[in-house]
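WARN no homologs supplied; continuing
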Amino acid sequence: MFRKLNPLLLKGIENNKNDNSYYGNEERKLLNRIAKYKNNYFAWVTNYASVKSYIETCYRNGIDEYTALRRLCDGSPYTVAEILGKNE
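OK structure emitted
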């Protein structure tokens, strides 16, 4: 994701470097803030994708979503062996 984001941020900063209007300054501030804190801003994307993948994998293997989430929140998520039924 950051491979695509970084060039876009740089392009936006470059396009606005000579715009000294109120909106140009505000846009430049926003782009700089996103560039500086991008890891924090977009951490939820990675976390969301991981949780969604875990839930979908559990569901496809006969484990209901609530139980999978409950175990995840309790700090003891299903292992791959448990999900695939290899501990039986």
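The first helix runs from residue 2 to 16.
OK
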